[in-house]
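Researcher: Re-running this chain for the archive, since the previous output was lost when a drive failed. Same request as before.
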Amino acid sequence: MSAYKLTPEQAHGRKYLRPGSVMPEHLMRLLELSKIRGHKITLALVAFLVHGMKRRDVLELYDISPGYFSQRLTLVRRNSLKVMYMLPHYVGCGMTGTEEDEQNTRNIPAPGRDDARGL
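Model: Regenerated structure tokens:
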């Protein structure tokens, strides 16, 4: 058995961000979170994660260094993992954007007010 252990980002990436298995909209949302704005690196990540091109081919096609590509890929994976960690706080919370939800949130007292002491 190998002594090499995957980081949480690597394990998450291998399961949820496999090359060729990522939907374009999903990747674009992750890129927004990561603040990756470079045109070449964006195209390279799309080619790798969405279209499933080999890493070596992507690096050659877009003239990107392996280290830079790995850093950006790790950043995307890290943000994806953060989203997964936050997901339980949003799923099933009852916030559907309806008028009823807005009325319910208006009744939450502001911190420091007298009516907040009982909370």
